[in-house]
Amino acid sequence: MKETVGATGLILNEPLLWEKGKKGRCGYSLPRQDVESFPLDNELTGEGPDFPDLSEVDVVRHYTRLSQWNFGVDTGMYPLGSCTMKYSPKTNEKQAGLSGFAGAHPLLPSNLSQGTLRMMYELEQYLAEITGMDAVTLQPAAGAHGELTGMMIIHAYHKNRGAQRSKILVPDTAHGTNPATATLCGYSSVQIKSNENGILSVESVADLMDEDTAGIMLTNPNTLGLFEENIREISEIVHSKGGIVYCDGANLNAVMGIVKMGKIGVDVMHLNLHKTFSTPHGGGGPGSGPVCVKKHLEQFLPVPRIVEEKGNYAFSDNYLESIGKVQAFHGNIGVIIKAYSYIVSMGPKDLKMASRLAVLNANYIKESLKDALDLAYDRPCMHECVFSDEKQRDDHVTTFDMAKRLMDYGFHPPTVYFPLVVHGAIMVEPTETESKEDIDKFIEAFKAIADEAKESPDLLHNAPDKSKVRRLDEVSAARKPCLAG
Amino acid sequence: MRYLPHTSEDIKSMLQVVGAESIDDLFSTIPDDCISKDDLQLPDALTEWELDSHMSALSGAMAVSPDYRVFMGAGSYEHYIPASVFFLLGRSEFVTSYTPYQPEVSQGTLQAIYEYQTLAARLLGMEVATASHYDGATALAESLLMAVRISKKRKVAVSSLIHPLYRKVVRTYFEPTGYQVLELPYLENGLTDLAGLDEVDDLAAVAVQSPNFFGCIENLKEAGEKIHNKDALSITCFTEALSYGLLKNPGSQGADIVCGEGQSLGIPRSFGGPALGMLAGRKKYMRSLPGRLVGQTKDLDGKRGFVLTLATREQHIRREKATSNICTNNSLCALSAAIYMASVGGTGIKKLAELNHDKAEYLKQELKKAGFKISFESPTFNEFVVEFPAGFDSVYDRLLEKKIVAGLPLAEYYPELTGHYLLCTTETMSKNDMDVLVREVKL
Questions:
Q1: What is the ipTM of this complex?
Q2: Residue of chain B with shortest Cα separation from A338
Q3: Domain A92-345 maps to which CATH number in 3.30.428.10, 3.40.640.10, 3.40.630.10, 1.10.1740.10?
């Protein structure tokens, strides 16, 4: 390679907050004291927290320097599989910051909050249309929270029928959240093995599904980036035993406008607005995890629901079978506004085009890299493809080493060691917002790394060497935790 | 579309590499009866400029300051946020990164969250704080579940002066578990009545909020002692994090777990979310904590660095045995709080909290002078309950027309408190705003 994107810049050092500053400084404009002082009883008051005192300049330089040690989608390609790190449009940030949205109190009377209520109501309608489901709640704060809400709805459904069940089916390709969520609802997870093609077979579901099983939690497309082709038959089996089909919608970005989950047997699904609908991931949140259900589960959705009458919008708590509330107020509205802005900016045609290009990009990477890296399942993929370090094993180079080396080439590594069914997995999801040129550079980098693995493996073992810090000692971090300074 | 970079030439050459005739071919593994035949029924795409007018029209249909004076708190507080906080928060290296799984290229997020954990622990007087949760209500639910895991007992008790919506969330979380949630009544002075605890057995934890939903400052030390006598964990909950700039922190009063809402620390109200769930505990419970934790370590050259740690508690490793199903934190909200706490500083936060207390106290005194009854006598922070005379509903509505929201009517949450209103002020209310309110409610 002639020149890579990765290079060292001027990266400044920066101490911890409390290693800076001096007592008596303040980075805040204290409002005027226009009322008399009413001191509280000494019995009630404390010393005040031991925070450092910093000037505004101290604070601004501190966080500006820290930000420069981070890699984001705006820095470069971030092909983290299953996370859909697509570009987050800037206008959406601007809309969420409008004072009418950002300044609103959540318990305002509904006649004083029509703008946000209408936006929420319309987004519910749009998400129902995209998924083919009948009703939506925007309340859950994240994907895992949506999943928990969905599972509570399943629990409430069986309870309401007077026959609670004890198990739930979870494929071996599932996200770790799926079994953890099932446990929170008192269900034990029964693992189903995926078949030699990386998908669920009808027979394996038929063997395990019974009348003590609450349903199935599947991800479609699954975490191998493969469409669950047997979903209709699987749904029929689950339904025939009185179970519910839950779909983890983490991978909806592959099929917008192409497949409607509600039309092919899914009863309840959660979406990740921070994946499919472009809201930024924020270093790990806040996200938003709306839950979409079919008619027979609507009565269990969290309250309050938004109702519309003659163009007026209001909250209603009047749903006796509702599971209740999963968040204090109405959901992550600041995030929801961005997803709404994304959908109305894209429109129906470009949403579908986004999925088509996401799938094209993934297949292009799959074909371009399958000589350099072992491809776990050599079949047409959806929005992501899964390789492994099989071909590098003789050179004693692991997925971990290659991931670290990619940083030196200027890329964020893909998701690694997941899904668990592929040993040493490398899961690449480029998303539709990456251009052919940037993807070509990524492919070229990965090929160069595969060559390095043969010729000079130590380059990989010692990578990264251009980042702010080198490999970190995670073992002693966990053995002797230091969680506060 | 400006977010989609592909030219038709790109598409053509990529398809050639893939060995497909058309993009449709790439979807050939999807059975035909799964493919949607109709176009999506969604409105046509808006240009960036059409979006601007559409969204400003929606945003304009909201009642917010400075147009409106909203004397409403109840878990969502208006505080000034320095421009520098928004500016720094807009750094897209923070905004467009994901959970810091690859620490070498995520040191910015990791150090910032480590610093947040430290400041949060110091504010609450605890040893360990998590990297944050969804909101105060879910942090409370997770804390109670954590106490059940630690103690292996099956009942928890929560004060009825914990935010009513938080208690609803707790009930939702507990419903599928089979564990029991009891509610403790309140006394005439506006504090939690713990007397009933004596008759309860198998008690994992008791949660008390301070300042409580009525704004009253609970006696956490005494409550903690009673709770510990029952061999249960003492959980302190809060909705107004700023109050601990002035009040004794929960850790110093014997709390085992502290949880609540950090929205006051530099996060706009945004109709209730995103928010900042704060959760902190004693060191001995560290491995039972739900959610993400960032720890300090060293790199190969011995340089200080930070990583996500104690992942063996978490869902992606432990799967069904995890301490929670949470995969992320509310990282950007934790970052806002950290920048805010750093900006206000140790000296500043105490002054700011005092000012908040003074303002609310002023309004309380003025209402008293005007002949209204303050419902509960205990000392309060930022919020208090006032009883307005019968027929006040129409005054309330008249004030809405004058762009004043005269607090939160409590009847919906506490039927016995019909005619009582929860009023809130912060540093953002001027003396004049409060004088206008007093004058208007008198009329």
A1: 0.97
A2: B55
A3: 3.40.640.10
